[in-house]
Design goal:
It contains 4 helices and 13 strands.
Length: about 300
Amino acid sequence: MSRPASSHTDLSLVPQNRVHKDDPDQVLLSRCEQTSERTFDITADWSRAHSLFPVRDRHDDPMLLVETVRQTFPLLCHDAFEVPLGHHLLWEDFRYSARTPALLADPDHPTAVDLKVTCKDVVRRGRRAAALALSIVVRRAGVHLGTAHTRFTIQAPAVYQRLRQGRGDARAMMADALPLAPPAAPQDVGLDTFHNVVLSPTDIPRRWQLRVDVHHPLFFDHPVDHAPGMLLMEAARQTAQAVSHPHRVLPAAMEVTFHRYVELDTPCLIEAHPAPNDPHGRARVLVIMRQDDDERFNALVTLDRAA
């Protein structure tokens, strides 16, 4: 490991590229302390977060929890597993479960969120990590907010370019992106404005086209050669809300598999399928994204009714 177990870093002093962001105002993490060879305590600051993830149905957005967890991946890779900047993190799978009652937005809640991270199944290529799994427990003021588990691989730039087969130039791919498709009605996907709508309606029930705005400040904070994972999960959430309309729902959990990249220059179609209720009786929706008749992404979304 690159740091002794007692070390800690104030991330307000660390460049935002440590969490793969260009905009410093999008950095959520504020402290990282290594507590053993494979465990870390990380603190996030949600004081500025609601400008990025507005409160929905009086709850902090579960996607805020997801983005907070996502930022731990590059941070630990670069600071603890000797991965150079410029390497690519490739998501394989991700799942989270949130306690939606604990996510009720309250102005008296502290804005500091604590993440206990355990690293598992570390695969190395030389000194640096080449693959990694994380298990994360998230709390606020001692109250359990949720858990997350993920696995991803890490590729050097030259290897990544070979994997992308000529599609690895982020600026070129964004320039060739499809024209922005018409948005679904915001109220159908649980929003108040068109700005964050990532679904475009089609003539087929329970089917949408992914709406990719390459100028969106959150999803495309920096040039990317494919649709980012956070965009795909937001689309899964909006799809689950659309099939639940007019009832308002919260994505209490997701189980996500990333099969292949979703490209920017080809339509991506999204299908929603009913799934059996979870063991607690909560409704679930299976969201599948296809491109060129090839399944690229799927998410099993578990729903809580919004209060």
